[in-house]
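Chain A, query sequence.
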Amino acid sequence: MIIRCIAIDDEPLALEKIVGYINRVPYLKLDGKFDNALASLPELKRHTIDLLFLDIQMDGISGIQLLESLSNKPLVIFTTAFDKFAIKGYELNAVDYLLKPISFERFLKSVEKAYSIIEKDLAQLRGSTLTVTEKAIDYIFIKSGQKHEQVKFSEILYVEGMKDYLRIRTSTKKIMTLMSFSQIEQMLPSDNFIRIHRSYIVCIDKIEEIERAHVKISGTKIPIGDAYRKTFQDKLKAKGVI
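Chain A, predicted structure.
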C-alpha cells in the first residue's frame, strides 16, 4: 500500500527534515512540500491526499485553520515546536502530535499508526483484511455520496482521477467517489487492473487498442504516462497478451 502525503512547514530546515524522513519510508509517496498553508491549497484540491504532515503556527493561516477549511480532510500528523496546541490538535482527530525536534524513530511510530488506520479503513471497505484473490469475490462496494454501491470487477472499464474525486467508469454507468488512488488500487485485483498514468487505472481485459502514447477502451483514448509505460508493458508480457 502506498500512502500519498504532503508536508507543510514554514521553517526550511524543519520542512527538509520531514521530507527526508518521508523519503526513507518505502510506502510513503511525497506529492508536495510547501512553506506556507495557502500555497498547498491547489494541490490539496487537485488530488486526494492520504496523509498531511502539518506545522501549526505559520504566517498567513495556521495549520489548524487550513485543516478546518478542507471539506475532504486527509489524516494529519501535526509537527510543531509548541505543545500548547496539542488539545486542539486531538480535537481535530489528528493521528499524532509531534514536538520538534523530531527523531526519525518518533516520526516512524506516527507513520505506522497512520498506516494502520488506513489499512483498517480499507479492510472495512472490503469487508475483510484478506486480499480480493483470497476472498474470491468478484465485486467491491464503492462509497458514493451517502450510499455504498456494489460494483463488479467485470464491469469496470477504467478509473479516472477528477481533482478531489475518482470517477469509476463501468460498462453501464459512472460512479464518483472520494476514495484515493492508493485505496482503490488495493481493492482491485492486481492481475487485471494497472495504473498507466497518474490519473488513470485501466482494466487490461477491456483494452481495445494499444499505441505508444495511449490505449483505447470503449472508444475513449486514455494516455500512458512515461513513468508507467515500462511497468504496463511488463504486465502485458507477463499476461502473454503481447
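Confidence is low (pLDDT under 50) at residues 128-136. Helices lie at 12-24, 37-46, 63-69, 86-91, 104-126, 132-135, 181-187, 229-239.
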